[in-house]
Amino acid sequence: MEKTGQGEGYESKDNKVLLPMSTGKTYFGGNRVEPRNQVRSISIRPKSPDLLQQAQKEVEILIRRRHNDKPFYEIDSVEGTPKLVNNILFAVQLVTLLIAVFPLAIGGIGILNIMLVSVVERVPEIGLRQAVDANPFQIRIQFLVEAVVISLIGSMLGLAFGLTAATFLGDILSQKMASQFDAAWPSAFNPQSIFSGPMMGMLVGITFGFLPANQAARIAPIDAIRNK
User: Fold this and answer.
1) Using one digit for the tens of pLDDT, what is the confidence trace for 79-127?
2) What is the domain range of residue 165?
3) Do 52 and 160 lie in a common domain?
4) Total count of domains within the chain
5) pTM for the whole thing?
6) What are the φ/ψ torsions at residue 31 (nearest 5 degrees)?
7) What is the largest CA-CA distance in the chain?
């Protein structure tokens, strides 16, 4: 027989045989004990897509009447599938966002601590720069640039590690899928992430580096001389 490929759901039509229910009972029996001989699903197609909801209600009424309202069944329709998929995608996106925000916050706090310590240790340097006509704006920009550079280095290292890990895991999963399901699972990444990652790193550096930079710009020359 000629292969037809994918069917409903995740099952292939190549592994199915369609036959009347009476014929199935004749060959396989109607044993309620043996799970493989039970009727586990029934596919129904209305004459028109507009009659989908009406057909679903009629099927539900028929099952309830024949089985005394026992809640042993579940009715799924193609109309509810997009809603389910959208809910799953929304949940995945929300979890992914939370996973992404957490390390960004940790990295930003680390940059904040590093820059605050750097400001305290470089008070004499700040005073010397002010002595040679450096204004607070220039000092603020200097420390902001340093914070952004640290963030960019961390972003590039994280991006390289993520791409390497994704490629490595993709190769392993492809080998497993090829050996068991005759399918591949190659690694893939969005080219926009190459630019969005460093841009997000710059934003984190500016956000968490502003406080130390502002603190450095507000140091008075007389205080710098005293610390020296």
Assistant:
1) 666 677 788 888 988 998 888 888 888 989 999 999 999 998 888 888 8
2) 81-227
3) no
4) 2
5) 0.59
6) -65, 125
7) 101
